[in-house]
Amino acid sequence: MASKHSKRILWLTQLALLTAMTIVLQMLSAYVRFGRFQVALALIPIVIGAAIHGAGAGAWLGAVFGAVVLLNGDAAPFYAFSVPGTIVTVMLKGIAAGAAAGFMHRLFEQKNKTLVAISTAAIVPIVNTGVFVLGCYIFFVPLLRDWAGGQNVTAFLFLTVISGNFLFELATIALLSGVIVRVAGMWKGKRMA
Description:
Blueprint: H1 4-28, E1 33-34, E2 37-38, H2 43-53, H3 55-71, H4 76-79, H5 83-108, H6 113-139, H7 141-147, H8 153-188
Helix pairs in contact: 1-2, 1-3, 2-3, 2-5, 2-6, 2-8, 3-5, 5-6, 6-8
């Protein structure tokens, strides 16, 4: 049995690696776009971190994801309209998505490996996109109306964000969910069948 000190070092090392992966994958996401929105590849290490270390680690990785989005210029069109709205929306969507993955993993961890893999992986893009859409309705309706050319904002959000960005993120993470949870199981020291 590992000592408390070595477990803490392992936890810090894993979280540092996942933090670095989150930053690098989010920077690479600039090259994977659907319209105005990019596909968040950083959701993958968020799922892994939440599965390994729980909701707190997921929330941390979600916060890192949000910070990268805010700092690398991805949120620039929203900053121009509302700086506080952009910061709240971007940080909240990342933190909530990571925490939700940790809670979902804990909920189904002992029940069914397939269910835990799919539910943990799927909840991240669902919450990420859901909070983004909510933030858009709270802070950015005039901006979105302008982008939609004066058309219905709800239709614009569903036709651009939901049909393109969200479905691609969900499909990508769902396809990788088995691998994601296997990696999490190996990092936790559990053999996943």
